[in-house]
Amino acid sequence: MKAVVPSPVRREAGFTMVELALCIAIISIAMVAIMGILPAGMGVQKQNREDSIISQEASHWMESIRNGSLLFDDATNYVDFVQVGQQRINSPVIQTNIFPGIYLNTPAANAIPSTMRLSYPELILGLLSLPKYDSFPDDQAAKPVTVTNTVFAVVRALTGSLNEKVLPQVVNEKPVESQLSFAFRYLLRVEILPVAELPIDRSNAGLRQWNARQRSLYDVRLTFEWPVIGNDFAIRTGGNSRTFRAQVAAQDRYQRNIKGNILVAPNSPINLRQMIPASSRLPVL
Predict the structure, then answer these.
(1) Structural domains in the chain (count)
(2) How many CA atoms lie within 13 A of 283 on its CB side?
(3) Is the separation of the CB atoms in 241 and 225 below 8 Å?
(4) pTM of this structure
(5) Does residue 31 fall inside a structural domain?
């Protein structure tokens, strides 16, 4: 008879409760660290995306102003409003005119005359091309009045993702409210100053050359501030700002493609302007 030898009892390997608790604790600590870094990473990605959009927008607006024509015909879809403040020399009063966009449908915007709506791109360009210092005739003064122009516009980004574009619908030719609400907005300040260095030759011929050079070389500064917070005309901007600067060899002219050079706004007249590049100057009238 064959004897049966019992097999030795094998011990099953496994984790104890203490080991499981330690693993859960280590994973929890790692998850807390990851969750803390994730918002910072998303913030950096958002900032880089906004910087890229601003760089592209600056290129569009700079080329449009220096060439005297907008590079995009649908600019009226993206400009919420343009504000022009005029202050006369030796006067503390600032006369403000606001030109609302075609899609700005608020009580304050609807109270402004419809003739001041930004209904065509040339009006937007004429307002943004206003020089920092300008003059216009005044019936009550013996000589033209010199004013300081402060011009800025609130714009929705022309570039970026398609879902943030302000695209009019085919049915009613107006964008949906979600596009107006979620589109990236920024504030654009424009300053156009003549480049005027004192001439070395102070003779009459030297002064004439200096005057001609002063009227043909301009310093264009575009300052972008974002994000824009608030609705209607009561807005403020966040802490982001970038300034772009270029010298433009052009002639500052009254706008020729609009009937009438002077736009009579409720508070003050505005001389709509247009930069004519040096390569395509029109003859002086």
Answers:
(1) 1
(2) 1
(3) yes
(4) 0.77
(5) no
